[in-house]
Amino acid sequence: MFVILVYDVNEKRVAKALKKCRQYLTWVQNSVFEGNISEATLRRLILELEKVLDLSEDSVIIYKFQNTWYSERQIIGIEKNPVDFMT
Amino acid sequence: MFVILVYDVNEKRVAKALKKCRQYLTWVQNSVFEGNISEATLRRLILELEKVLDLSEDSVIIYKFQNTWYSERQIIGIEKNPVDFMT
């Protein structure tokens, strides 16, 4: 499935969160990751993220899409890291 | 259609970008907005954003989904602004 992960993490923990997300997904913009990932692998990422985050303070939203039909990605301004998962 | 908008905007311009996006979409997390919006209204938002941004430096990604079937939204940690567009 295709996922978009966005996080809002305290500065003290953000480097670890970034490193963890980059192991599984592609960084596309400040605090935003995208990619195709299986349910099982995503569960593993979530478990590992939960170990480095403070769940009472940090926030992660994961948008999961079983398919990307009828969907599109539009860039305004510069593209920090060109990807094409949604094509 | 359902959209997720994420931006990475220079501090000098981010207040204006935030204000503009909030007129059309719901703020859900730092630099992240969601909502249901028509193609025409989204075009208007984009035109207005282009006036406040520096397109050679700032970056906006807009994910557009004609429907949210087979999709899901998962929160890890706290939810900064509870919304339910994807239900």
Characterization of this structure:
- Two copies of one chain form a homodimer.
- Helices cover 32% and strands 34% of the residues of chain A.
- By secondary structure, the first copy, chain A, is α+β, with helices and mostly antiparallel strands.
- The first copy, chain A, has a single domain, classed as Alpha-Beta Plaits (2-Layer Sandwich).
- In chain A, strand 2 and strand 3 (32-36) form a beta hairpin.
- The first copy, chain A, is globular and about 35 Å long.
- The model of chain A has no long low-confidence stretch (mean pLDDT 94).
- The interface between A and B is large, with 39 and 39 residues.
- Strand 5 of chain A pairs antiparallel with strand 4 (59-65) of chain B, so a sheet runs across the interface.
Give short descriptive properties of this protein.
homodimer; 87 residues; alpha+beta; Alpha-Beta Plaits; 4-stranded antiparallel beta sheet; 2 helices; 5 strands
In short:
The structure is a homodimer of 87-residue chains. Chain A has 87 residues and is of the alpha+beta class.
